[in-house]
Amino acid sequence: MSSPIPVAVLGATGSVGQRFISLLDNHPWFKVVALAASDRSAGQKYSQATRWILDTPMPDYAKDMIIVLASVEAVQAKIVFSALHSDVAKELEPQFAKAGVAVCSNASSFRQAEDVPLLLPEVNANHIHLVKEQRKIRNWSGCIITNPNCTSTGLTVALKALDDAFGVKKVFAVSLQALSGAGYPGVSSLDIMDNIIPNVGNGGEEEKVETEPRKMLGKLNQNKIDFADIKFSAHTNRVAVIDGHTVCASVEFSSPPADIQSVLQILSNYQAPAEARELPSAPKPVIHLREEADRPQPRLDRLTGKGMSTVVGRVRKDSLFDIKFVVLSHNTIRGAAGGSIYNAELLVNEGLL
Amino acid sequence: MSSPIPVAVLGATGSVGQRFISLLDNHPWFKVVALAASDRSAGQKYSQATRWILDTPMPDYAKDMIIVLASVEAVQAKIVFSALHSDVAKELEPQFAKAGVAVCSNASSFRQAEDVPLLLPEVNANHIHLVKEQRKIRNWSGCIITNPNCTSTGLTVALKALDDAFGVKKVFAVSLQALSGAGYPGVSSLDIMDNIIPNVGNGGEEEKVETEPRKMLGKLNQNKIDFADIKFSAHTNRVAVIDGHTVCASVEFSSPPADIQSVLQILSNYQAPAEARELPSAPKPVIHLREEADRPQPRLDRLTGKGMSTVVGRVRKDSLFDIKFVVLSHNTIRGAAGGSIYNAELLVNEGLL
Amino acid sequence: MSSPIPVAVLGATGSVGQRFISLLDNHPWFKVVALAASDRSAGQKYSQATRWILDTPMPDYAKDMIIVLASVEAVQAKIVFSALHSDVAKELEPQFAKAGVAVCSNASSFRQAEDVPLLLPEVNANHIHLVKEQRKIRNWSGCIITNPNCTSTGLTVALKALDDAFGVKKVFAVSLQALSGAGYPGVSSLDIMDNIIPNVGNGGEEEKVETEPRKMLGKLNQNKIDFADIKFSAHTNRVAVIDGHTVCASVEFSSPPADIQSVLQILSNYQAPAEARELPSAPKPVIHLREEADRPQPRLDRLTGKGMSTVVGRVRKDSLFDIKFVVLSHNTIRGAAGGSIYNAELLVNEGLL
Amino acid sequence: MSSPIPVAVLGATGSVGQRFISLLDNHPWFKVVALAASDRSAGQKYSQATRWILDTPMPDYAKDMIIVLASVEAVQAKIVFSALHSDVAKELEPQFAKAGVAVCSNASSFRQAEDVPLLLPEVNANHIHLVKEQRKIRNWSGCIITNPNCTSTGLTVALKALDDAFGVKKVFAVSLQALSGAGYPGVSSLDIMDNIIPNVGNGGEEEKVETEPRKMLGKLNQNKIDFADIKFSAHTNRVAVIDGHTVCASVEFSSPPADIQSVLQILSNYQAPAEARELPSAPKPVIHLREEADRPQPRLDRLTGKGMSTVVGRVRKDSLFDIKFVVLSHNTIRGAAGGSIYNAELLVNEGLL
Q1: Stretch D221-245: mean pLDDT, rounded?
Q2: CB spacing of D303 vs A55 below 8 angstroms
Q3: A248 is catalytic
Q4: pLDDT in tens, C236-269
Q5: Does A185 touch chain C (CB under 8 A)?
Q6: Torsion sign (Cα): D135, D138, D140, D143
Q7: What angle do helix axes D15-23 and D338-349 make, rounded to 10 degrees?
Q8: D207 at the C interface (CB within 8 A)?
C-alpha cells in the first residue's frame, strides 16, 4: 500500500468502539483520522470522554484525539466503522453511504436488507459483490456492508465447512454468551453472579441466530442472495464470562459422513475463499479444532488466532441428528470489531472501495 | 406416626451428605441415629471431621454425633441414605439391603439395574413396587431404591407432564450445571472463573441424561420397566453457579398441542400421583411455571418449594420440534438428598419398609 | 401489642426497599399500609413496578398493593421506613417528621445532624432520647432517627464491646464490601468479574467509616452527643460478593488486655443494653465469635442471627497496635433495612412514637 | 550474548512452572534445555503431562520436550528456575548449588537464610553480592538466590521509593490476593464464589509480609544484611480474582513529606539501581502511578509493563499515619516466575554465574 486509507470509528466511546480503536492500532492499511460519538462526548479528548474497559491499554494514537460528532459533515474518511446503536445506525449509515463513504457496520439495522451483504469473508467473501447492486439501486457512491450478530458468527463458520461437505439441513443451537456482548455497563453484577440468565435481548437474539446464518450460507445469484435451506432452532443464554460466546450445536446433514473422523478432517482443513485468505485480519487458522474432552473454553481459547479464529471441539455423534459439537468465537473481536475490519479489507482488496 | 423411624446417612461428611443432614433436621417421620463415613473420619465428632460448606448452619443434632464406619455392623437403622461414591456404593449398598435395611441411594451404581426402581415420586411413584420383585430375586429383606442424576431430574418432571398430554417423541437438552454437582472441593476456581466448561464428568453425564428419563417415563409391566420410546440428545456444561441446574430443552410430540396456551396449562396443572402428593417432602407445587421472559434463573428460583419444585419458563414454539422451554431444579435438594428422602417417604407410605 | 402499628416504606421498589418489605412480612408489631416510590412507579401494582432481586420470594402482602407517591399527603402511617436516595431524603424526611410521623431512615442525609440519633440499639440505645431535643428544637411531633452506613455497622458493634473493656484509641480498617451495597443495577458485571475496585462511592465511604462510629461510640450528654475520642483510618474496597461486608481491623487500646483470651471473652459475652435486648429484631447473639482460622466468610456467615448478628473472627495480636480481627455484617439486613426496623422497635419500646 | 545460557525449570508442570516456560519463550539470553518434575510426570512429553492453565498458549518449544526427573543427575543446565514446593526445594536446591548450578528460586525455603539473597533487582540489586559469602561458607560453586513472596513484592517496591525519600517507620498492609497464588487446583470454586476468605495459607502469609520486606529494604553490610527497622502489620485475604495481588497500605514516615504531591513525584520518578535497569526483564516503568480515583484494578492493570511493573494508586493522606495508597503487582509474573528470571539476569550481568 502506498499511503494509508483514512478511516473513522462511529460510536467510538462504547465497548465495540473501543475494540475498533484497539484493533486499528498499527493496522497496515488503515489510519484512524476521526473518532466520532454523540454530542455528549463530541469536543472532548478521547481519553477524557471514555471509560476504557479493555484489559489492553488505550492506544496512544487515540488518547488526544478530539471526538467529533457522528455526522457526515464532521467525519472525513473513506471508510467508517460503525459501532452505533441500531436505531441511530438506521438513520446515519445511509447518509454516509450516500456521501461516498464505505460503511462497515456492526449494527443490525441493515443486515437483512436484500441488497446489503452480510459478511464473514472466510465464509461468503463473494457476497461482497452485492454492493454493486446496492449502489445501483440506491444511487450511492459509498456502500453499507455488515457483519452478523456475534452469536451467529462462530456457528456459521463451522456450518460453512460442514455444509460444503455434507449439506446441512437442521441445526439445534444453544448459546452461552459473554457479558461484553451486552455492552457497558450492560449486565448488572447482581443479575449474573452465581447465576445465568436464560435469555438475551428479550428473544431478538434467538431470531437473529435462526435467520442470519441462512443468508450467509446462501448463494449470490444474479444480484440477490438465495437463502440456504436450513432450519435452525436457537436458545440463547447469558453466562458469567467476560468475553467469548460458546454454542452447543447438533446438526443434521443431507449426505451424512461415514464417520466422525471425516468431520474432523473437513473442519480442520477448511480454508477461507482465496480472496479472503491473505488479508491482514484473516483468521489463522480459520477453524482451530481441539481434540480434548473439555474444550473449547472461553477463557483459555477465545484469543486463538488473535481472537479471529473459530474454535471447535467435542465433535461427536448425535443421537437425534448426525453430529454435535461445541463452537467458540470471540464476540467483540471476530464477532464485532474484528469482523468489520476484515470486511473492510475485503472491500479494498476487491477494488470496491 | 407413633415413634420416629431410625435412619442413617452414609457418606455423611461430603457435600450431599451435608444436605441429607440438613434436610433431615426436624423431619416428621425420621430420626437420624447414625452418621457414617470412611475410616478416615470414623471415631471423630461430626463437627470436627466435617468442612461444612452449606450456607445454612450445621444442625445442632449432628454436631456432637460420633461418626461411625460405613458398614452393616456399625450402622443400626431401618433406612440408610446413601451419599457414597458409586464404586463404594456398589459394594456396600447390597450388604445393607441384604441385612434388611432400606437403602435410599443417590449413587448411580444401581440406577440401571432391572429390578431397582429409579424414582421421582411425582413422576413414577408406582415404580416403587419393583422392590417386591427385587426382594424376591435377590432374597433381600431390605432393598435399594435410587433417585436419578441431578440433571435428569427437573427435565424428567417437566417431560412427564408433557408426555401424559401430548406424547413426547424427541428431546434436545442442553444443560448449564452448577458447581455443587461436582462435590467438594470439586471444580477449581481457576477452571470456572470467567469461564464455562463444555463437559461434565467426561461425557458420562450426557449418557445419563439420555438414558435415565427413559426408565422413569417408562411403564411398570409385570415386574419390569418398559422404557419409554423417546430419543434424547444431550449436551452438558458446567457454569459458574453454586446451586441449581438449568436445562434448555426442545421437544417433539406425537400429538402436538394446538397452541402454547395448552402447554402452559398442562405444566402448571400437573399433579403428583395421589400416593406421592401429601408426603412431607412432596414439592409444592410440583411445577412452578414462570411467565417472565428471563426466568427461571438459578439464583432467584432454585429455592422454589423449598428447593423441591421444578421451575419451568420460556415455553414457546420451536422451529424444528414442537416446543422449547427452560427448566431449573435444585441439584443438591430435589436432584440429590431431598429426592432420596422423598423416595424414602414413599417407601414408608406404601408399606414397603 | 393490641393492634399493629401502621407503617410505610419510602423508596419501596429499590434494593433496600425490597429488604424492608421482606423483613416486615409477619412483623409482630408493624403492619405495612403503604408502599411509596417516585411518580415513575406510583399508581402501579407493586409486583408490576418492581424488578425483585432478592433470592427469597416477594411477600404476598406486597404483590397487589398499589404504589403511592412518596409524599406526606399520600402516605398515612405512624412510622415510615426510608430507603430514599440521600438528596430526596433530605427534602422529604423533614416533611414527614413535621407531620407527626416517625422517620426511620437508612439515608445518610441527617446522620451527622447534632440532634438526630445515629443508632445501633445494641450499641447506643440511649441515644434515642435525643429525639426529645430534636422535637423541641425543630418543633416536630414526629422525628427522624437514622442507622449508620453499612460498613460502619459491624465494626462499631465490635468496637463497642472492646471500648467498654479496654478503651479504644486508634482503629485501622480495610473493608471488602458487597455488591448489593451499591444498589441495583449498581456495579456493572464487567467492572467486578475477575476484579476488585479499590474505592467505594469515590471516597465518601471512607469518610463515613472514619466519622460515624465516633458518634455512636460517643456519650449522650445534656441533649447532645460527645463524640468518642478515637482516630480511624479507613480504606474501602468493592469485591465480587453479593451480600455481606467484611472489615479487617487493627485496634489500639488505652488499657490493653493481658492476653487474647480476655478479648475473646469480652466479645462473646457482649450484650445489648437492657432496653434493646428483647426487641423483635434484636440480634441473637449480638456478636457471634468464630474461632476457625478462616472465618467469618460472607457467603457462609452473613445470615448468622437472621442477618442481624455481627460475626467476628481471627482475633489475634497485632504487631503495631494491640489486636487485629475480621468482622462481618450483612449490609442490607443489619446494615440497612433490618437496622432501621430495630431502631423503630426501640422507639416504640421507649414510648417515643 | 554470543551463545545462549542453558537453563532448566524445576516443577515445570505446576502453575508457576508454566509461567516460567511461557516467559522464557524467546528469551534473549536463556535457552530452556530441560523441564523437570517429579517421577509422576518424568518420561512423558510436556504437552501430555501438563494441564496447561494459562490463557496464552503453551510455547511450541516445550510441547515435545520429554520431562526429566528433578535431580542433579538428570538436569544439565547452568541456571535452574525452581518452582518446587518448599519442602522439596529445601532438599533439592542445595544439591544443585553444590553441583555448580545457579538456583533462582521462587520457593520460600531459603528466603530467610542469612547468606541467601532475597532479591527484587529494582529494590536491592546489590544484595546479589551475598552469593560470594554464600559460596565461601557453604563451599558451593553454584548458589541459591530467591525472590520474595508474591504479596510482599509490589508493596516492597513502593516502600523502597518511599523509604529512600522519607524513611519508612510503620506499615499497615491488607491484601486482596488472587486465586493463582494458591496454585492449581488450589482454591475450590465453592469456597470463593460470592465470597472472600479472610486468610491465606493459615497465617503463614501474614508473617512473610511482615518479615520479607525488612530483609529486602535492609542494607548489605560486611557480608550480611542488616534488616530495615520498619514495623509491619499484615492482614491477608483471598478474593475472586484470577491474577494480581492488591494491597491497601498505610505508612508512617520518619521525615514526612510536606504534601502528597511530593509523594507522587517520588513514586513516579523511582528508578531501579543502575545495574538492574536495562536487563531484559526490567520493569518499564518500575512504578506506574495511576491518578484515577478507582485504580489500580487487577483485571485492568496487572499486565502493566508486561506484568513486571508495580502499579500504585489512590495516594492520599492517612489520618493515623502519614499516607495511604493501593499497590498492585502481578503475582505469578512479577511476584513469581518473572521475578526469578529477572534475578537470574542480574546474576549473569554481575558476572556471578
Answers
A1: 96
A2: yes
A3: no
A4: 999 999 999 999 999 999 999 999 999 999 999 9
A5: yes
A6: negative
A7: 50
A8: no
Could you read off the pLDDT of D200-228 as tens digits, one per residue?
986 589 999 999 999 999 999 988 999 99
Q: Which of A151, A210, A156 is nearest to A177 (CA)?
A: A151
Stretch B204-223: mean pLDDT = 94
Per the DSSP assignment, residues forming a β-bridge with C237 are C176
Helix or strand holding residue B247 (H, E): strand B245-253
- In degrees and rounded to multiples of 5, residue C181 shows phi and psi of -65, -20
Radius of gyration in angstroms for the set of CA atoms belonging to chain C, rounded to a whole number: 19
Nearest chain A residue to B231 by CA distance is A320
Burial class (CB in 10 A: 0-12, 13-18, 19+), B297: buried
Cell of B319: 422451529
- Which parts of A105-171 fold into alpha helices (H)? 121-124, 130-138, 150-166
D127 and D216 Cβ atoms separated by less than 8 Å: yes
| Mean pLDDT of the C325-350 span | 98
Pairing of strands C5-10, C79-82: parallel
What 3-state class would DSSP assign to C248? strand
Report the distance separating Cα A278 and Cα D245, nearest Å.
42
The length of chain C in residues reads 353
CA distance D338 to D153: 12
The helices-and-strands tally (H runs, E runs) of chain C is: 13, 14
| Domains defined for chain D, CATH in brackets | 5-149+337-349 (3.40.50.720), 150-330 (3.30.360.10)
Inter-residue contact C34 to C42 (CB < 8 Å): no
Give percent of chain C above pLDDT 70.
Answer: 99
DSSP state of C180: G
Cα D84 → chain centroid: 14
| Cα A58 from Cα A21, distance rounded (Å) | 8
* Beta-bridge mates of residue D238: D177, D197
Angle, vertex CA C161, rays to CA C160 and CA C166, nearest 5 = 95
Q: Would the CB atoms of D56 and A303 count as touching at under 8 Å?
A: yes
The verdict on pTM exceeding 0.80 is yes
Is A245 a residue of the active site?
yes
Return the residue matching grid coordinates 560453586.
D141
Integer Cα distance of D11 and D37 in angstroms:
5
Cα-Cα-Cα-Cα dihedral sign, residues B71, B72, B73, B75: positive
Residue C203 has pLDDT above 80, yes or no: no
**The residue type at C87:** D
